[in-house]
Design goal:
It is built from 30 helices and 18 strands. With 759 residues, the protein is α+β, with helices and mostly antiparallel strands. Helix 12 crosses helix 13. Bound molecules: manganese (II) ion.
Length: 759
């Protein structure tokens, strides 16, 4: 088992008078394994190895100072507390950081947890280090109150602190990494909270700052805590694939090296398997199975110069067939976090898809270590922060984003921006007057319009991007100048925009503006229901007559009445009774007669389904799920009105909806209204193709059961000697739950494919 093997480096380290190797994966053992502390000279040796000019005296003084300050304090593991700042410092030596950062790491918990003061640290180590330690102390205090809903404000402070001196972030990330590595000693509840915060904030921040290695380890450690089952499945499967393809990887490495050497390129080729977390995200997000993931292994080709990078591309592309659409040149256009590389995929040796990353050594270093790769040695000009601002796009971006975001006064708005947008790439666009509008990547002109002003969004009818007419759904690129064309004739935006918009701000505004339009839709539906009832009862309907009955219905307008009927808040028969007090008996008679003849499924035998939590429709209108496949919260859904029967809920991707394309008046805009406090199950259907093997059905069933899915029914048919088709009806809580089960099924070797069926 992978866990056991992973434990070994730590056990070994413990018996060898050296501290745990910082790059070693975390111990997963349940019982405490104490690690011996790194000695003073070990730390100095590590720093001297990459920085011959290190101030050894400074390091030694900091080591002793922190050790004395923490004194008898213990960690949850029982280790002396001092082992923690020491390991944090060790992690930073792997990033080859300057003395001030290493010392700040040693001292990072002193002000908060010991008698030490800023003044004392300033006096002993200088104000540069004092400021770093104080920055870290502020972050630590932030963390202690962060459960108190002040998350937005805290995040803002975090970003401000790290944009002052990015070394604060580097120590903070190392601090978090060491805490994550030693998490097994924490109570399970805080373990989960810390892991979620790490996955939400610290891992993306590390990635945004270009520190891939740090990001990957933080993600992997969090993933293991948040979803241990999924983590184990992925690792197990990766191990199996690696064992199977072991020779192939070596062979591909050898063939690539040989081919390049023959053409005079001296390259270092390395096969590398992807991280469990990124594979899992792909399986969940793109809904693909293990077998369909072509890129479980990637190959890096490291060469000496940019010229050689492009020569290598030429050699590779003329030797093996290229997979179209996979070539990306991040050298001519680096990513915003300074990542530079060529990506391409070829059908390589053994007819295998081979994903290649081609880059120079310098690029490789920046790609792995990000901002930390911009050395902080003293021989540069200006302060580290000033130099970094010039050298690193990632840092310049951080500074800029903090500026843009600190202008937004509303904390919720800030949080939304930060969580949803800060950690993804942004695009910066301009109004014709030159005002900067920052939007998340993939935002379109609709988002832009609402970012300028809600009124501009609501009345937008067209646009010009860089002077050319373009559709409002056009995705924006950095530097685009966008002119939004508006029309006062448009009072509300089309409701379809809500799904086109990317930003929360635009979506909320569209929802608000279309609420009126939705109300009209309900009024229209209500009117149809009322008119139908009057027709059946053979009574004349007239608006004037209803107007007179409004007080009796406690409504102010005819539209109000109709919308109430459309929403199911009022029965059509109530309306009839309000208009014709003697309506009741007549209606019963006539509905009995005509109902039995024309409509065998009368209202009486259709199940009332107030149980289905759809917003805006209550139990008076029968609601049911599409018969084949159902729908689950998280699906975008529509309701189809069937006169005399009620409303059937279909997921938007259901092919059955084609049948209703010609009848738009039957389509109803509906939304889930589930209550998180009382989780419920919803029907879904899967098509699973199983390899015929003893026990394979049992494996499928137990995966579903283990992941809390209720199986309602299984239909089996054997199409070939090799495969069995299973149609499984099951009940799940929501789309995420369903997708999790699908991903777990796909991870099983006996499962060839899994697809959701929508009837
Ligand atoms: Mn700490």
């Amino acid at each position: 088992m992978a866990i056991g093997r992973r434990n070994q480096p730590q056990m070994q380290a413990a018996t060898e008078a050296v501290a745990a190797v910082p790059s070693a994966p975390p111990a997963a053992a349940k019982k405490p394994v104490r690690t011996k502390m790194m000695r003073q000279y070990d730390l100095v040796d590590r720093v001297r190895a990459y920085n011959p000019n290190t101030d050894e005296d400074l390091l030694n003084r900091a080591y002793v100072y922190a050790m004395m300050a923490h004194g008898e304090q213990k960690r949850a593991s029982g280790d002396p507390y001092f082992s923690h700042p020491l390991e944090v410092a060790a992690i930073l030596t792997n990033l080859k950081l300057d003395d001030a950062t290493i010392v700040a790491a040693l001292l990072h918990d002193t002000i908060e947890d010991t008698e030490s003061t800023r003044a004392e640290i300033d006096q002993m180590f200088g104000s540069e280090i004092g400021a770093l330690v104080e920055g870290l102390t502020k972050l630590k205090r932030l963390e202690l109150v962060s459960r108190e809903a002040k998350q937005a404000e805290n995040l803002r402070k975090l970003l401000l602190a790290i944009s002052d001196d990015v070394r604060v972030l580097l120590v903070k990330l190392a601090d978090r990494l060491h805490n994550m590595r030693t998490m097994e000693f924490m109570p399970p509840a805080s373990r989960r909270r810390i892991a979620e915060e790490t996955l939400d904030i610290y891992a993306p921040l590390a990635g945004r700052m270009g520190m891939q290695e740090m990001r990957e380890e933080l993600e992997d450690l969090s993933f293991r805590i948040i979803d241990p089952d999924a983590h184990a499945v992925v690792v197990q499967r990766l191990d199996a694939l690696e064992a199977r393809d072991k020779n192939l990887i070596g062979e591909i490495e050898a063939q690539l090296s040989a081919k390049l050497a023959k053409n005079g390129v001296n390259a270092h080729v390395k096969g590398r398997r992807k991280q469990p977390f990124s594979i899992w995200m792909k399986m969940e997000r793109k809904s693909v199975g293990f077998e369909q993931l072509s890129d479980i292994f990637g190959f890096r080709i490291i060469v000496n110069s940019i010229a050689e990078v492009y020569r290598t591309v030429g050699i590779v592309h003329t030797t093996w067939p290229v997979v179209p659409g996979r070539f990306k040149d991040y050298i001519s256009t680096p990513k915003q976090n300074d990542y530079r590389s060529i990506h391409t995929t070829v059908i390589g040796p053994g007819k295998q898809r081979v994903e290649l990353q081609i880059r120079t050594e310098e690029m490789d270093r920046v790609n792995e270590y990000g901002i930390a790769a911009h050395a902080f040695y003293k021989d540069g000009v200006g302060s580290p922060t000033e130099r970094l601002e010039k050298e690193s796009n990632a840092f310049a971006w951080l500074r800029h984003t903090v500026e843009v975001l600190s202008e937004s006064a509303n904390p919720e708005e800030f949080l939304e921006h930060t969580k949803m947008e800060l950690f993804h790439d942004q695009v910066f666009c301009f109004t014709p007057k030159g005002k900067l509008i920052a939007l998340p990547r993939h935002a379109n002109v609709i988002d832009f319009a609402y970012a300028v002003h809600t009124d501009v969004g609501n009345s937008a009818v067209g646009c010009k991007i860089n002077g050319k007419f373009a559709p409002l759904s056009s995705e924006l690129q950095n530097g685009d100048e966008v002119e939004v064309l508006t029309s006062q004739a448009q009072s509300a935006p089309p409701s379809a925009w809500e799904s086109l918009a990317v930003t929360g701000k635009a979506r909320a505004a569209i929802r608000r503006a279309t609420r009126t339009a939705v109300r009209d839709q309900y009024a229209g539906l209500g009117r149809r229901i009322v008119e139908r009832l009057f027709m059946r009862a053979k009574i004349a309907y007239a608006d004037d007559k209803l107007k007179g009955a409004l007080p009796r219905l406690a409504r102010v307008s005819i539209d109000d009445v109709m919308a109430a009927v459309g929403r199911g808040e009022m029965k059509a028969s109530d309306v009839a009774r309000a208009m014709y007090p003697d309506y009741k008996e007549e209606a019963r008679l006539s509905s009995k007669k005509s109902g039995a003849a024309a409509n065998p499924k009368s209202a009486a035998d259709t199940k009332t389904s107030g149980a289905i939590p759809i917003r805006g429709i209550n139990s008076d209108l029968p609601v049911k799920f599409a018969p084949n496949g159902g729908a689950v919260p998280g699906d975008r859904i529509v309701g189809i009105v069937t006169p005399g029967e009620g409303i059937t809920i279909y997921p938007i991707q259901s092919p059955a909806l084609k049948d209703f394309e010609e009848e738009p008046e039957r389509w109803l805009d509906v939304r889930w209204d589930t209550d998180e406090a009382t989780p419920r199950r919803f029907p879904a259907r899967l098509h699973v193709q199983n390899v015929n093997e003893p026990g394979s059905l049992a494996q499928v069933a137990s995966v579903i059961a283990e992941h809390d899915g209720n199986i309602d029914n299984i239909n089996m048919s054997r199409r070939s000697p090799d495969f069995t088709d299973l149609i499984i009806d099951l009940e799940v809580y929501d789309l995420k739950h369903l997708n999790g089960i699908i991903a777990q099924l796909r991870a099983k070797a006996v499962v060839a494919s899994v697809d959701r069926i929508n009837g």
